[in-house]
Amino acid sequence: MQERGSVQNKICDELISMRVYDEPLRMEPHQEFDKWAAIEVSDFSYVPDGMESFILNKGLYAVFDYKGLNTDNRIFIYIFTEWLPNSGYILDDRPHFEILGEKYRNNDPESEEEIWVPIQPT
């Protein structure tokens, strides 16, 4: 976070909190994943020291607007146990992420973010 000002070619100021699973999400509480703090850029012509580039493969995502504490997992329980089974979609094996825009406030019950869940038709 302290180095985000050194990122060039930013498309916007929104931050991305991304999880990349080595294997498809199994809905187990202790499944391992790589956590990325990311910013969308127009190109990788300059990547600051200590940072890496990541190309997110295109695909369909379900997007949920969420307001509340980022430690409250009820939204994820709803997405994976109610919405997804009744949606006509299944999880796709791509990164999951949240977009933390201007209304995001860490540890604030009034915080707002977008939750992006990779899906594909059944």
> Oligomeric status of the shown chains?
single chain
Give the C-alpha Rg: 15 Å
Query: Structurally, how many domains make up the residues?
Result: 1
What would you call the shape?
globular
What's the name of the CATH homologous superfamily?
Regulatory factor, effector binding domain
Mean pLDDT: 92
Helix vs. strand class: mainly beta
The share of residues in extended strands comes to 25-35%
Query: Which series of helices and strands comes N to C?
Result: EEEHEEE
Number of helices: 1
How many β-strands, per DSSP? 6
Helix content: under 10%
Distance between the termini: 38 Å
- CATH architectural group: Alpha-Beta Barrel
Instruction: Name the poorly predicted regions.
Output: none
Task: Provide the CATH topology.
Answer: Multidrug-efflux Transporter 1 Regulator Bmrr, Chain A
Q: Would you mind describing this structure in some detail?
A:
The mean pLDDT is 92. Strands 1, 2, 3, 4, 5 and 6 form a six-stranded antiparallel sheet that branches. The protein is globular. The termini are far apart. It has one helix at residues 74-83, and strands at 15-21, 33-38, 61-67, 89-91, 96-100, 112-121. The protein has one helix and six strands; from the N terminus they run E-E-E-H-E-E-E. By secondary structure, the protein is mainly beta. It has one domain: Alpha-Beta Barrel (Multidrug-efflux Transporter 1 Regulator Bmrr, Chain A), CATH 3.20.80.10.
